[in-house]
Amino acid sequence: MDNFDDIESAKSHHHLMKRPPVDIEFSDLTYSVPHGPNGSKIILRSVSGLFRSGELTAILGPSGAGKSTLINVLAGYRCGDARGSIMVNSKPRDMKSFRKMCRYIMQEDLLQPSLTVMESMKISTDLKLGHTITDDIKLETIESILEMLRLTKAKNTLMENLSGGERKRLSIALELVNNPPVIFLDEPTTGLDDLSSTQCVSLLKELAHGGRTIICSIHTPSARIFAMFSHIYIVAEGQCMFSGVGQDMVPYLSSIGLNCPKHFNPADFMIEVCSREYGDFSEKMSSSVDNGKCLRWHKDNSETRKPIVRRASQYDTVSKHHYDFSSSGWSQFKVLLRRMAIQHKRNIAYLLFKFFMYTFIGFVVGGMFFQFGNDGSRTLYNYGFMFITIIVFMYTPLMPVLLKFPHEVQLLKREYFNRWYGLNAYFCALTCSQLPAQLILSSVYIVITYFLTNQPLEWDRMLKFYVICVMVSLSSESLAYALSSQLNVTNSVFLGPCLACPMMLLSSFGLGYKEEEIPALIRLGMSLSYLRYGVEGLVMSVYGNGRARLDCPKSEDYCDLRDPSALFDTVGMSEVSYGKSLTLLCLMFIAFKVTSYAMLRWRLSTNPSLLLKLGFVGRFIKAHFNIPR
Ligand SMILES: Nc1ncnc2c1ncn2[C@@H]1O[C@H](COP(=O)(O)OP(=O)(O)OP(=O)(O)O)[C@@H](O)[C@H]1O
Question: Is the CB of 61 under 6 A from ligand 1?
Answer without folding.
Answer: yes
